[in-house]
Amino acid sequence: MFLFAIVVTMGLGFLACNSTQKKQDEKKVSDPVEENYEDLKEELNEVGVAISDLFKTEKDNFKSSANEVLDDINRKAEDLKQKIAGSADENTLKNKLHKLEQEADKLEKELQELDDKTEEEWNKARAKIEENFKSVQKEIETFFE
Fold first, then answer.
1. Dihedral sign, CA of 38, 42, 47, 51?
2. Which residues of 120-142 are buried (b: 16+ CB within 10 A; e: fewer)?
3. How many Å apart are CA 133 and CA 74, to the nearest integer?
4. Are the C-beta atoms of 126 and 62 separated by less than 8 Å?
5. Whole-structure pTM over 0.85, yes or no?
6. What one-character-per-residue DSSP string does 61-94 give?
7. Interhelix angle 90-113/2-84, nearest 10 degrees
8. pLDDT per residue rounded down to tens, the chain (145 residues)
9. For residue 58, which of 107, 117, 10, 104 has the smallest C-alpha distance?
């Protein structure tokens, strides 16, 4: 019986030591896993920032290009007003120019509102603005008809 008690005590001691060793081994394994998790989390955050920057860059480029076109429309409309002065169709052409300028102003306002849009809303607004630009383009193409 005494021998049995010694064997049981040694067995329990061995199990306790083995359990402590396993916990230490698990901790050694989980530290690198935890580090890898943190690295992965940081890398994914960087990708998220890059996507956000890409969206902002795309939006800024679109707005910049659109504003250049609108500025060009306004400049050419002013030039055209001077060139049509005194012509037989002056009133008709001035009315068409006025309508074109109103469309350009409407587009400019829509462009300014893009800053407040989320990505999904921005894509919809961009599609609408592109349609409006095409409409203005058709007006320009048929201006002298």
1. positive
2. eebeebbeebeeebeebeeeeee
3. 14
4. yes
5. no
6. HHHHHHHHHHHHHHHHHHHHHHHHTTSTTHHHHH
7. 170
8. 444 444 444 444 444 444 445 455 555 555 666 677 777 777 777 766 676 676 678 888 888 888 898 899 889 888 888 888 888 888 888 898 898 899 889 988 888 887 777 778 888 888 888 888 888 888 777 877 7
9. 117
Three-state SS letters, 116-136: HCCHHHHHHHHHHHHHHHHHH
Tokens of 53: 């920057």
Backbone angles phi, psi at 89, to 5 degrees: -95, 20
Read off the amino acid at residue 127.
A
Q: Which amino acid would we find at residue 87?
A: S
Q: In the numeric block, which tokens belong to residue 21?
A: 């060793």
Contact predicate 129/107, CB 8 Å? yes
**Alpha carbon distance 6, 13 (integer Å):** 10
Cβ–Cβ contacts within 10 Å for residue 104, how many? 20
Q: Which tokens go with 23?
A: 């916990």
